[in-house]
Amino acid sequence: MTRTAHGSTSVGRRHRTSGWLAFAGTLALVVGAFNVIDGLVGLFDDDYYLVGDNQILVFDYDTWGWIWLAVGIVQIVVGAGILAGQMWARVVGVVLAVAAAIGHLAFLQAFPMWSVLTIALCVLLIYALTAPPAGARGT
């Protein structure tokens, strides 16, 4: 929305704020931190998870560790971008939340409660990123 004062030639720019985007930015930071923790545990403590190596879909613990660490770091950066009002961060946030939810489905056997919690937070994050109008900012 633009606003022009009567009798003035300057044009100010106002942004609609959205509590959902502030929530989404914070939630992206939390989900990113959860994924970083998953990654570090996968890299440094193979005995922590509940199942054997052959029961996790596709990859071993070290590979999952690197995947979750990378996804988590990017999600933290995206969370900061969402809080800063960047549209690219909203788009990347949705893509990463979908990817993380699917990844945690594959990781369910290794750590069920953590994965279910993270999947639920990813679904909530997707909603929080897609519900506000296109021009809205979190702060």
3D structure, described in words:
The chain has helices at residues 19-44, 61-83, 87-106, 112-130, and strands spanning 2-4, 11-13. The chain is mainly alpha-helical and 139 residues long. It has one domain (18-130). A two-stranded antiparallel sheet has the order 1-2. Strand 1 (2-4) and strand 2 form a beta hairpin. Helix 1 (19-44) runs antiparallel to helix 2, helix 1 packs antiparallel against helix 4 (112-130) and helix 3 runs antiparallel to helix 4 (112-130). The relative contact order is 0.21.
Give a short overview.
63% of the residues lie in helices and 4% in strands.
What's the SSE blueprint?
Elements (H helix, E strand, L loop, with lengths): L1 E3 L6 E3 L5 H26 L16 H23 L3 H20 L5 H19 L9
Antiparallel strand pairs: 1-2
Helix pairs in contact: 1-2, 1-4, 2-3, 3-4
Rg, Cα atoms, Å: 19 Å
Note the run of SSEs as H and E.
Answer: EEHHHH
Helix vs. strand class: mainly alpha
The tally of strands reads 2
Please give the share of residues in helix.
Answer: 55-70%
The main sheet comes to: 2 strands, antiparallel
The general outline is elongated
Averaged pLDDT? 81
Strand content: under 5%
Overall tally of domains: 1
- In DSSP terms (H or I, runs of 4 or more residues), the helix count works out at 4
Low-confidence segments: 1-12
Please give the alpha-carbon distance between the first and last residues. Answer: 16 Å
Strand order of the largest sheet: 1-2
Organism: Actinomadura graeca
InterPro entries: DUF7144
Protein name: DUF7144 domain-containing protein
Domain DUF7144: 20-132
